[in-house]
Amino acid sequence: xxxxxxxxxxxxxxxTDLYPNMKRRQQTxxxxxxxxxxRELTQITxxxxxxxxxxxxxxxxDVCEHPVINRDYPFVSAAARTISTPLLRNMGTIGGNLLxxxxxxxxxxxxxxxxxxxxxxxxxxxxxxxxxxSKKCWAVQSSDLVPLMVAIGAxxxxxxxxxxxxxxxxxxxxxDGIDYLHKRPEELLVDIHLPPVNGWRATYKKLRRxxxxxFPVLGIAARVDLDESGTVRDAKLVMGGVAPAPMEVKEAxxxxxxxxxxxxxxxxxxxxxxxxxxxLDNTDFLMYWRKAMARPFVLRALEELKMQ
Length: 308
Fold this sequence. Notes:
- This protein is an alpha+beta fold.
- It has 2 domains: 158 residues, 2-Layer Sandwich (Uridine Diphospho-n-acetylenolpyruvylglucosamine Reductase, domain 3), CATH 3.30.465.10; 108 residues, Enolase-like, domain 1, CATH 3.30.390.50.
- Helix content is 32%, strand content 21%.
- It has 14 helices and 11 strands.
- The protein has a 5-stranded antiparallel β-sheet.
- The termini are far apart.
- The model has no long low-confidence stretch (mean pLDDT 96).
């Protein structure tokens, strides 16, 4: 069906992102193809020993409540619980959250408002109103599960009439607010593959104005792998909500690897994330305050991992 529809076609599952965008005429597909009745996309198989596979159409509520996810991957269910509200989690899917459109104060408005400013680069215009001198769209990546999936090394399976391919979560995203996915339009996200839990631990911290409903204006996903002595063998720190793609902070990871998860190393990692974060004025709160919050949120994430 998608091959017949061509570039004017689009898949939909829960529709909690696509339908509001269609109402605002941000996205205008001529053919919308529902995948909610494809059973293959609603399965959850495996466990923490062998790795878990989650179908892309599994609802966020099911991710929150599934006993195996809560037992072996509690950080995934905890991150899913921070998404929107219970009603929208009943409709929204894990695949939809991973493919969430990038957001911006100048883009997420009704058609008349956007027309009044002569539109923006992301839709119908030529100027990025966040950074008028830039040739790049700076709409921000605002998914809660994306930074976490990148941090834990998840992979996704994409399918089309040309065949299937596996892509790392890190490799799925592109640092551009318009072309934000390394995914062809006709490809369907089939499932998400979580790696076995063999000693590593992870968490996700979210900054937003209200305790529910709101998108993140800063997300911190952290993963550490400790040996028997408590030395950090490997670490991942990924920020969301500060750029068009999730941002892996390698300097912060280097500050942690090779030593104990002590206050000095955690402070150095938090400082590296603060330095790397360059949020713009494209979402809620002042951008300088959002940048400053990188330090305490990284520390909170690492302190939680230290206590696990």
